[in-house]
Amino acid sequence: MASSSSSAALYRISNLQNHISPLEATNKQLRSLVKISPQVSEALSNGRAVVALESTIISHGMPYPQNLQTAKEVESIVRENGAVPATIAILNGVPCIGLNEDELERLASLGKSVQKTAGRDIAYVVATRGNGATTVSATLFFASMVGIQVFVTGGIGGVHRHANQTMDISSDLIALGRTPIAVISAGVKSILDIPKTLEYLETQEVYVAAYKSDEFPAFFTEKSGCKAPSRVDSPEDCARVIDANKKLNRQAGILFAVPIPKQHSAAGNLIESATQRALTEAREQNVTGNAETPFLLARVNELTGGTSLAANIALVKNNALIGSQIAVALSQLT
After folding, report:
1. What pLDDT is stored for residue 306 in this prediction?
2. What is the β-pairing status of strands 84-91 and 94-97?
3. Which of 75, 189, 222, 292 is catalytic?
């Protein structure tokens, strides 16, 4: 007959063998709250390249049906370059990682009636069973939850001009500082204070590098007048940085800033002039908070006769191309 002490030891060993750590239990519970498309789920399980895509650009970035067409084209670019697209949105209160054609159509047709959802809004949209188009911060949250390491967007939010008076600093920067995901964007929009944004990213310990350039891009233009903190010259360079960041268990993210293609940057001066006018109008009309960026982008598009929207679409597609190549290089590396 076993002694009471040996029985207790066996009981403890049995418990340890069947024990799920609090972190594992939390991750399992979180994943049960989201709907992952079969294609994304299979790719993640098999270690294939997956690219996360935000959905605010679909609902708030351009009118229907152009938004739907652009979303489909961006996903096609990701697939053509060997990765699986995972557009992220909240539909009827359910966070969806990877949308099918019907879901993309629904999101695009609903347009601005869908709530623009940043990280702070996620719980509310889910609790009220609402529809939410994810911004950079919300997309980072969901991508991280399911293990996606590469995220493509147009441009990230940043420190707004006159932030010393308004304290308007995008939650994208906070999310980047605490989410170990690589974001591929065309830098930050010129409507923002780019030098202060770069300073804030440094404070958040986010690694920032320009892709094949020594200068940080300004969304619609290749150059911002700000030297990039670092430079990378290939998808493989990027993949090695992402892999090292993960192996070192760093919890901060990475920003790879990809300049807009040269053929679309020629209109940069026209767009910058329109941007300055739109900024003045926004202040005069007291447009602030998360309403400011959609207002400015729409107004700049009007003032440039659609030139800015065409440039926006071109840079998003280019980011999708580069991001997919990075994701494939990372999957091959790991």
Report:
1. 81
2. antiparallel
3. 189
Q: Partners of 97 in the beta sheet?
A: 36, 88
The verdict on whether 189 is a catalytic residue reads yes
* 138 Cβ contact list (under 8 Å, min separation 6): 54, 88, 117, 118, 119, 121, 122, 132
What are the structure tokens assigned to 97, written together?
């990682």
Residue among 54, 75, 222, 292 flagged as catalytic: 54
- Is 90 exceeded by the pLDDT of residue 268? no
Label residues 95-124 b or e (16+ Cβ within 10 Å = b).
bbbbbeeebbbbbbeebeebbbbbbebbee
Which pLDDT does position 279 carry in this prediction?
86
Q: Which two tokens stand for residue 149?
A: 């390491």
Residue 143: per-residue pLDDT: 98
DSSP secondary structure letter of residue 234:
S
Told to judge if 72 belongs to the known catalytic residues of this protein, a careful annotator would answer: no
Q: How confident is the model at residue 30 (pLDDT cuts 50, 70, 90)?
A: low
DSSP letter string, 108-152: HHHGGGSEEE-GGGHHHHHHTT--EEE-HHHHHHHHHHHT--EEE
Number of H helices, E strands in the chain: 16, 11
Region 51-72: mean pLDDT is 94
CB 264 within 8 A of CB 310: yes
Least reliable range by pLDDT among 5-14, 42-51, 72-81, 212-221 = 5-14
